[in-house]
């Protein structure tokens, strides 16, 4: 989860998120370099007493400031596409989990072995246990095994929602009538928070997602406690 | 109703045009703008026409004297010839102004006014903060975040020494 007044990305919990953080650093550095160059040039232009009104052509500099941005764009595109294809890699998931968006809660279905399903509503502020996080806690957390590839199938039962967990690098739209697939993998146990990321009505800000990653052995114990809804 | 509104629209434009004409010393009439004109510009050092178009008798005599050798001209005469040709010198046309003080002052005034509005809003309009902002709750919350190892790589949990149970120095 984010700490108060946090500006940057959350620490990575999945390998894809690590790649995304590195790519973000790369792209942001390029942005800072270009912006400071432009700012410097503007300041030079605003503080000179010299004038020059008779430029007719400038072929050499036009070549440079066309070719150089093209090269910079390629240098951004190549790592970006690399990560894009990485997210689509084939891997054999250990588990398939369906996340279905409703107004205004998520429901989860584990259908691999038995039909296990539950709803996940936000815990209202008044009902928080001491030390819990306002607007982030839910009544039933989504429990998953760590260090395993998990296939997420995300859809919606009414309007557009989006299932997002920033520290795992996942954000996938929940579209009614469509199943979107995303892959999840956590390298650490613990709780990881996210929030609905597509405007869906009055309580759009109040339908969070909490993933609880636990050890393999404990996961099957947990699953055995669920009943058919 | 509509007629008076239309008239006031036209009337306003007529007034603003005459203000512009007065500001430039009635030099520019609306039909003159296509003819060569005088400008004081740093990047156009030799304007298309002289500043003084209609010379007085003494100025005409001076222009005749200018046709002879210039070493016979006194300093005052040279300055007079310059002022016939040009309205402002480079030093005069490039002079700074005190406009920046007005701009900065007005900006600070409006920022201060906005600050007053925000203070009044906080005092009279906003409700209380949720109980999760109380110091005790924030302490429990932070403890829970450390137990959960939130952002352990370079975020919150990385700043806590788990052996000594204190923040890292």
UniProtKB/TrEMBL annotation, chain A:
This is Cytochrome c oxidase subunit 2. Belongs to the cytochrome c oxidase subunit 2 family. Its cofactor is Cu cation. The keyword Transcription regulation does not apply. Keywords: Copper, Electron transport, Magnesium, Membrane, Metal-binding, Mitochondrion, Mitochondrion inner membrane, Respiratory chain, Translocase, Transmembrane, Transmembrane helix, Transport. The keyword Glycosyltransferase does not apply. The lineage of its organism: Eukaryota, Metazoa, Chordata, Craniata, Vertebrata. It comes from Aotus azarai subsp. infulatus. It is found in: Mitochondrion inner membrane. The gene is COX2. Residues 92-225 form the Cytochrome oxidase subunit II copper A binding domain.
TrEMBL record, chain B:
Belongs to the cytochrome c oxidase IV family. It is found in: Mitochondrion inner membrane. Component of the cytochrome c oxidase (complex IV, CIV), a multisubunit enzyme composed of 14 subunits. One of its GO terms (cellular component) is respiratory chain complex IV. One of its GO terms (biological process) is mitochondrial electron transport, cytochrome c to oxygen. The chain crosses the membrane at residues 102-120. It is a single-pass membrane protein. Pathway: Energy metabolism; oxidative phosphorylation. The gene is COX4I1. It comes from Aotus nancymaae (Ma's night monkey). Its main location: mitochondrion. This is Cytochrome c oxidase subunit 4. Component of the cytochrome c oxidase, the last enzyme in the mitochondrial electron transport chain which drives oxidative phosphorylation. Keywords: Acetylation, Membrane, Mitochondrion, Mitochondrion inner membrane, Transmembrane, Transmembrane helix.
């Amino acid at each position: 989860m984010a700490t108060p007044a946090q500006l940057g990305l959350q620490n990575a919990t999945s390998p894809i998120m690590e790649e995304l953080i590195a790519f973000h650093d790369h792209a942001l550095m390029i942005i800072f370099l270009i912006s400071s160059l432009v700012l410097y040039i503007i300041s030079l232009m605003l503080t000179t007493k010299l004038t020059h009104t008779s430029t007719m052509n400038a072929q050499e500099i036009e070549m440079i400031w066309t070719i150089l941005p093209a090269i910079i764009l390629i240098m951004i595109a190549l790592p970006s596409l690399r990560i894009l294809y990485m997210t689509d890699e084939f891997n054999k998931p250990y588990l398939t989990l369906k996340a279905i968006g409703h107004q205004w809660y998520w429901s989860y279905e584990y259908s691999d072995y038995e039909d296990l399903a539950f709803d996940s509503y936000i815990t209202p502020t008044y009902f928080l246990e001491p030390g819990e996080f306002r607007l982030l806690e839910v009544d039933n957390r989504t429990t998953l095994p760590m260090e395993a590839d998990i296939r997420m199938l995300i859809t919606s039962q009414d309007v557009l929602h989006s299932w997002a967990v920033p520290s795992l690098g996942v954000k996938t739209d929940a579209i009614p009538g469509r199943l979107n697939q995303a892959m999840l993998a956590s390298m650490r146990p613990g709780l990881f928070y996210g929030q609905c990321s597509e405007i869906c009505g009055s309580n759009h800000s109040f339908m969070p997602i909490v993933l609880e990653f636990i050890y393999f052995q404990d996961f099957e114990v947990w699953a055995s406690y669920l009943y058919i809804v | 109703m509509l007629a008076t509104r239309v008239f006031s629209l036209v009337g306003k434009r007529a007034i603003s045009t005459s203000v512009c004409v007065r500001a430039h010393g009635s030099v520019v009439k609306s039909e003159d703008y296509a003819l060569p004109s005088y400008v004081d510009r740093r990047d156009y050092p030799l304007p298309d026409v002289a500043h003084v178009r209609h010379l007085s008798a003494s100025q005409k005599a001076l222009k005749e004297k200018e046709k002879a050798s210039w070493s016979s001209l006194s300093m005052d005469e040279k300055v007079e010839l310059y002022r016939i040709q040009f309205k402002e010198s480079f030093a005069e046309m490039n002079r700074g102004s005190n406009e920046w003080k007005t701009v900065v002052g007005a900006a600070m005034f409006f920022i201060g006014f906005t600050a007053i509005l925000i203070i009044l809003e906080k005092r009279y309009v906003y409700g209380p903060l949720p109980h999760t902002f109380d110091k005790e709750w924030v302490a429990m919350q932070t403890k829970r975040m450390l137990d959960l190892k939130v952002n352990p790589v370079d975020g919150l949990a990385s700043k806590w020494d788990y052996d000594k149970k204190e923040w890292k120095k």
